[in-house]
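User: My collaborator sent over this chain with a note saying "see what the structure looks like." That's all I know about it. Can you take a look?
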Amino acid sequence: MLSFENVNVAIEGAPVLRNVSFSVEAGASAALIGRNGDGKTTTVRTIMGFTKASGMVRLGGQDLGSIPPHRRPSLGIGYAPEDRRLFSAFTVEENIVLPGRVAKLSVEQIRQRLDRAYAVLPELAELAKRPAGSVSGGQGKMVALGRALMLGTRLVILDEPFQGLAPVLAQRYAEALRRLRTQDRGITLLITESNPKLLATFADATLTIERGEIDRLSGS
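Assistant: Without extra context I'll predict from the sequence alone. Here is the result:
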């Protein structure tokens, strides 16, 4: 479903990804594990088209290289970056539906996908009318996940979603991911994380990246 073939990325002349090759099957939950600076975020940013990369990145067999970044979400890719990037003056619900409006989804499509996000993350329905700038950091991570679900019908990418979460919120976030997996078994998840223990019971496959190279690929 998602594959990298000999992908290289350099930033300001410094190699960050080195001949990265891996594949993730459709419907799988894959963990990309590595320390800070090993290339996790660069890997997911490459999927979104935010880096200058050589090699091949494919989604469902389609080469993403010729598709500009602003068009990639319309392929069914949802992305929740590490820093959330919420619009603080917008309400929680406005943040969630914004990608759907940009993608010119119909009112019915937006409502269906919003209902899906609320089914996965029930507490977002309670926060819907609050300004996004007033929610906690942990709640903001959940808003970012809900927003990713607006367009993420095939692939959802979560960059360090557990970073900075208190244990209680981390547990609630993990429960939301399990609900997503139960409700939509066809969706593929790619989750980056520094601590492999957080995803040990959730991931179908684990990719270990070290110094820009995929060091190990294992199944659960």
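A starting point for your reply to your collaborator: Strands lie at 2-11, 14-24, 29-33, 53-59, 62-63, 77-80, 155-159, 188-193, 205-210, 213-219.
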